[in-house]
Automatic annotation (TrEMBL):
Full protein name: Interferon-induced very large GTPase 1
InterPro entries: VLIG_GTPase (IPR052986)
Gene: Gvin1_1
Top-rank taxon, per record: Eukaryota
Entry-linked PANTHER family: GTP-BINDING, UP-REGULATOR OF CELL PROLIFERATION-LIKE
Organism: Liparis tanakae (Tanaka's snailfish)
Length: 252
């Protein structure tokens, strides 16, 4: 935080010094013209209120080079004072005084819009609120979204990316009024979701491990029967599950 503040101050100082030096090369009739040239050069990089300029306009006929010298000296001293204040101010107080709260912005980016995949409950990863289409890069077994087979009542271990290209796979839910609907035509029901069709994709080892470990709990939660777990899923260790999770989020 201090490093960022220091960079910002140094950038402002460079802008002021550059504006002053450029104004010195121009022929200004008086100090007022000189100051206006400085402000014009700064533009919106550093806006100086006009009422703040009036205080030294009584020096309108003062030597411009001397004024420029003391102006840059004052700016230099001001930078030192600011840096001392930055070092002494608690980080929590700094965040509290900011107009835009970075922790809130970061949280909003991480949590996304709050929407979940209608099949596996994976959270939308589009970030923030302003997007027209929801998506998740990694989908989960649809059992985690409460989907089960109609006849057997067993939770389904398939993932959405495979189901949306299966020609005969169907689903039914409240959105379909309990009627069967083909997964491949899911956009008819959920037009704001984009699920990448890929039959080669599998659920991550992490979610396989989760379903294995809590199969009965999920079945109880969704009023279904436990899923038929593939044999290889039972061989996934906690370490492999953790490594899979880290890989999914690029954590090293």
């Amino acid at each position: 935080m201090i490093e960022f503040e220091d960079r910002h101050v140094q950038s402002s100082i460079r802008s002021i010094n550059a504006a002053v030096n450029k104004a010195k090369t121009e022929k200004s009739a008086n100090l007022e013209s000189f100051v206006k040239n400085v402000c014009q050069e700064l533009g919106d990089k550093l806006v100086i209120p006009q009422d703040a300029l009036g205080a030294f306009m009584i020096l309108n006929n003062a030597d411009q080079d001397q004024f420029a010298h003391w102006l840059t000296e004052c700016v230099k001293n001001m930078a030192q004072v600011l840096q001392e204040e930055f070092n002494e101010t608690n980080i929590k107080m700094k965040l509290k005084d900011l107009r835009v709260k970075p922790q809130n912005e970061l949280f909003a980016k991480l949590i996304g819009c709050g929407k979940q995949c209608p099949f596996c409950a994976a959270p939308c990863e589009a970030g923030g609120q302003e997007h027209s289409e929801h998506f998740a890069s990694l989908h989960r077994p649809t059992a985690l979204g409460g989907y089960s087979f109609v006849l057997s009542k067993k939770l389904d271990t398939d993932i959405c990316s495979s189901l949306v290209i299966a020609p005969n796979s169907t689903f039914r839910c409240d959105a379909t009024n309990g009627e069967r609907h083909h997964y491949k035509d899911y956009k008819d029901i959920f037009p704001d979701w984009k699920i990448p069709p890929d039959g080669s994709l599998e659920a991550s080892d992490y979610w396989k491990y989760v379903l294995v470990k809590f199969n009965n709990k999920f079945a109880e939660e969704f009023n279904a029967k436990p899923a038929d777990i593939p044999v290889t899923w039972n061989m996934i260790t906690p370490q492999q599950a953790e490594e899979s999770l880290n890989k999914s989020f690029n954590i090293k």
